[in-house]
Structure formats: C-alpha cells, structure tokens
Specification:
Radius of gyration: 24 Å
CATH topology: Rossmann fold
CATH superfamily: SGNH hydrolase
Order of helices and strands: HHEHHEHEHEHEEEH
Number of domains: 1
Largest sheet: 5 strands, parallel
Number of strands: 7
Low-confidence stretches: 3-21
Strand content: 5-15%
Helix content: 40-55%
Number of helices: 8
Shape: globular
Structural class: alpha/beta
Amino acid sequence: MNRPFILLATLAVAFTPSLRAADEPVAPPPGPPTSTVASDQNYRPKLAYQVYFGDYLTLRQGQPVDLIFIGDSITEQWRWGAGSPVWKQHFEQRSLDFGLGSDKTQHTLWRLQNISLKGFAPKVAVTLIGTNNAADTPSDIAAGVKAVIDATKSTFPGIKIVLVSILPNARATEKMAAANKLIEPLADQQSVFYLDLAAKFTPEGDNWKGLSRDKLHLTAEGYEIWATELEALLPAVLKNP
C-alpha cells in the first residue's frame, strides 16, 4: 500500500466524527420562560368567574377607579374573603379588584391583554403576583412579574405601579424571598414603587403574622397590614410626576 493512500485513509477517519457532528440536528435555543408567555388556562375553564367578573366590571363602569389591584386569590379575596371589611373601609369606592384565584404570572398577563378594561383609567396599580409560580425558578418568577408590569403599563399608559413583595408561604417561602430580591430593583421610584409587605409578615410559630391556617392566604389582620402600608405609600406615589 503506497503512502498517499494511507495518508488519505487516515485523514478520512480523523474527520469522520466532525462530519457526523455537523450532520446532527442542532437544538433550538431555549424559548422564553412560561412565566412570561400569556396563557388563558386559568381563565377559559372558569365560566362562573367570567360571568361574575363581567357583572362586576359593568357595575364599576362610570364609578371612580383610582386604584386597580392586580393579582391572584390573595388579591381577589379583598372583595369577598377575609379582606372584605378592610376593602369596604379603605378601597371599595375608588378601586377595581382584578384578582383571580390560582393565577400565575402568565395567567394575569393574559387577562391584562385580553379582558377589556376600557372606560377605566386608574392612577395606580397595586400588583402582587408570583406566589403560584412555585414550580418556577426565582429568575423566571421575576421575569413573569416584569411581564405583568409591562402589560399593565401598556394597558394603562402613564399609570404608576406599586409592586408588592411576594408574601411568605409554606410552599416555597425561600424561593419567593429570592424572587423578591430580583423584583425589588424593578422599582425606579418614578413609575414603579416597591412595597416590601413581606417584611411585615413576620414569623409566628410555624406560621407568619397575617396569614391564615393554610399559611398562604391572608387573615383580616393581614389585609389591615396591607392597607396600612399601602395608604402610607400612596401619597408619595401620587405626588410623583
């Protein structure tokens, strides 16, 4: 066997793995986290909610709405749960409750983008969302919160946002604390203001102050704490040009 043939054969063997690697399909780049992709999966199946919320929007049309509360069941229960007495005292006559139980960030994002809120021009959005994204990473939770903030600004140009820290809970309190560290810098003190409500919900035995027995939802005391902290912050938010 002559040397040129041996050399060519050796080169062919040497380059075969590279050629095979080049022929293998390239994995597509990862898409955006699900926490930032609008999803109707918590709204479409809930026909009763759609009816009662539609009635609520009709009832509120033409009424003053300076504040809109955006979030999940913790927000929804301002109106009919443990928060109802506090809601009636502090917010009912000037606010819209845009909470839906079990909402994750992607669900709230979908509702902001697809439920008509024409006729409402709130000055401030009070946003508490992310606790149901317990399966996501802190960075994905924070990305979802930012997506909700951006959608809120798009729906209501010029609105100020009070971003409320995600509260402690028995499911994933350390993860939510980590997410809070990532969402706090979203506050620029111009259009977004951070309310560290979680700091007020201090540990009490195997639970936290202001939380119910399920270690997730709020008691009347919890809603009173929220109202007190929010009322203290609102003058500075509304004064900001």
